[in-house]
Design a protein that fits this description.
Number of helices: 4
CATH architecture of the largest domain: 2-Layer Sandwich
Shape: flat
Number of domains: 2
Strand content: 25-35%
CATH topology of the largest domain: Alpha-Beta Plaits
Largest sheet: 3 strands, mixed
Radius of gyration: 19 Å
Distance between the termini: 12 Å
CATH class of the largest domain: Alpha Beta
Order of helices and strands: HHEEHEEHE
Number of strands: 5
Structural class: alpha+beta
Length: 149
């Protein structure tokens, strides 16, 4: 599935840099590009993992960014013959993941319910392994159905 320029942080950063009125000198170019890319990245939230209750054994807490969760899920739920992951949404309340949304693009002629259930189970396993809990709903929706390729 191709990413369009609106979804590509590097393309957005490049376009923003080209529109910039401030001069970009050779020595500043790297820092300027990095600053623009960082401003284009989707904000993230921290999700607390279960240690021993609310805190780990030493009284500290361990948290993971939703950016990390997004990357792990995209790697763990690759496109296959029946569907591809289109979008992930996380609902976080009080530092705890309370819901996950998976939006798929399906392929015509395949059992999309089965594809959704397989992805739901795999996402739950990935997150339970990392977070230490899996008591949140995972909503799977199909945004589009494409013809067979």
């Amino acid at each position: 599935m191709a990413m369009n320029d609106a979804d590509d942080p590097l393309a957005r950063a490049t376009a923003a840099m080209k529109r910039s009125e401030e001069p970009v000198w050779a020595g500043d170019q790297r820092a300027h590009v990095l600053r623009r890319v960082r401003s284009a990245v989707t904000p993230a939230e921290l999700v607390t993992t279960d240690g021993a209750g609310d805190h780990d054994a030493d009284g500290s807490t361990t948290s993971v960014s939703t950016r990390v969760l997004r990357r792990l899920l995209r790697e763990g739920l690759p496109a296959d013959d029946s569907s591809a992951l289109d979008r992930l949404t996380f609902t976080v309340d009080g530092g705890r993941l309370t819901a996950l949304g998976l939006r798929l693009v399906g392929v015509y002629g395949h059992d999309l319910r089965r594809a959704a259930e397989t992805r739901r189970e795999r996402a739950r396993a990935i997150l339970a392994d990392l977070l230490g809990y899996d008591d949140f709903p995972i909503d799977v929706s199909v945004a589009d159905v494409l013809g067979e390729s």
